[in-house]
């Protein structure tokens, strides 16, 4: 398809990556309060896999998946005065629409990009960075001297949590699945790294903290680590479960929190920042942290938009350490 022709991955049925097929789309001029964005980079997330497979029934079919992207404003709808044609922006929304070469977007959702942040960095890292900021500054505000257990420290969010932990003066214990990932975790700020396949992370945490435990455990793994994370907490510690890559956490007795008076939170950026103005403020802080070097993100692996299925296959690789983006033709 010519680059000038708007096209998208239109999901018409749930299934394996082969259901992700590119096709032309009709795109009206932006309406009042909208902007048209020409995407230059599109984020690929595990959430997209759950949508494609049908595990999450949050996208009405036929529909265009994709939670985040970055690009350049091509046209303004009536009443839009705080943005300009040619301006670089990123966006994030549960309304989807990311796997497309162009889209119309409510102007209030367009997040201006500073000069120090590339479109590929924004598209590959915005959701992850917003999540990491929320976890370390809002859900459990880290302080100098805190002990932190950070699962999946070589993953997208895990790397950024470790970087924020280092910046804020915490001691970060990271868990990873391989020696190669351990090097990534250390480079991102983990003071101690546990290869969870080779040793009991609970016992190692207790040894490292002289039996005290950690002030907070950030756990996106879920089923296989949840009870161990709980056991790793210090008195009045805080378990933050923000994902379930190993499966959902089974029901447990709430009284299990009582012996050490610990707390449990299940946060979500989307539920916490429903107000677009709050989201823009948060994104401004995160972009400033990237520009200042507080956060860094390696260059993402790229796929053509039409190769979205291949990108989803790559996302499932246990050896992958790069973020992924789709590049429109």
From TrEMBL:
- Ranges where the Enoyl reductase (ER) domain occurs: 15-326
One matching Pfam family, short form? ADH_zinc_N
Q: Which domain of life is it from?
A: Bacteria
> What SMART domains does the record point to?
PKS_ER
The record's listing under SUPFAM superfamilies reads: GroES-like, NAD(P)-binding Rossmann-fold domains
Q: Which GO terms describe its cellular component?
A: cytosol
Looking up InterPro entries in the UniProt record yields: ADH-like_C, ADH-like_N, ER, GroES-like_sf, NAD(P)-bd_dom_sf, QOR-like, Quin_OxRdtase/zeta-crystal_CS
Signal peptide (from-to):
none
Protein name (database record): Quinone oxidoreductase
């Amino acid at each position: 398809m010519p680059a000038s022709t708007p096209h998208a991955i239109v999901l018409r049925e749930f299934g394996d990556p082969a259901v992700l097929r590119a096709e032309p789309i009709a795109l009206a001029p932006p309406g009042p309060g909208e902007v048209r964005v020409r995407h230059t980079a599109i984020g690929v997330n595990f959430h997209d896999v759950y949508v494609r497979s049908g595990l999450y029934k949050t996208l009405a079919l036929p529909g265009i998946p994709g939670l985040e992207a970055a690009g350049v404003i091509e046209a303004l709808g009536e009443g839009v005065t705080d943005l300009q044609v040619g301006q670089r922006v990123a966006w994030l929304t549960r309304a989807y629409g990311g796997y497309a070469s162009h889209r119309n977007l409510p102007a209030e959702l367009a997040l201006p990009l500073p000069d120090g942040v590339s479109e590929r960095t924004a598209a590959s890292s915005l959701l992850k960075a917003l999540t990491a900021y929320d976890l370390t500054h809002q859900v459990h505000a880290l302080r100098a001297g805190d002990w932190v257990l950070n699962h999946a420290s070589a993953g997208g969010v895990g790397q950024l949590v470790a970087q924020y932990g280092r910046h804020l003066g915490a001691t970060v214990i990271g868990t990873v699945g391989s020696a190669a990932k351990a090097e990534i975790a250390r480079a991102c700020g983990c003071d101690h790294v546990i290869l969870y396949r080779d040793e009991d992370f609970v016992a190692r945490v207790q040894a490292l903290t002289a039996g005290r435990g950690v002030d907070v455990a950030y756990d996106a793994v879920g089923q296989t680590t949840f009870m161990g994370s709980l056991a790793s907490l210090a008195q009045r510690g805080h378990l933050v479960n923000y994902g379930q890559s190993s499966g959902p956490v089974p029901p447990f007795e709430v009284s299990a929190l009582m012996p050490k008076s610990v707390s449990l939170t299940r946060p979500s950026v989307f539920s916490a920042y429903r107000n677009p103005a709050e989201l823009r403020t948060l994104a401004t802080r995160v972009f400033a942290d990237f520009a200042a070097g507080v956060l860094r993100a390696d260059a993402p692996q790229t796929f053509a938009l039409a190769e979205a299925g291949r990108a989803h296959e790559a996302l499932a690789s246990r050896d992958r350490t790069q973020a992924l983006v789709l590049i429109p033709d």
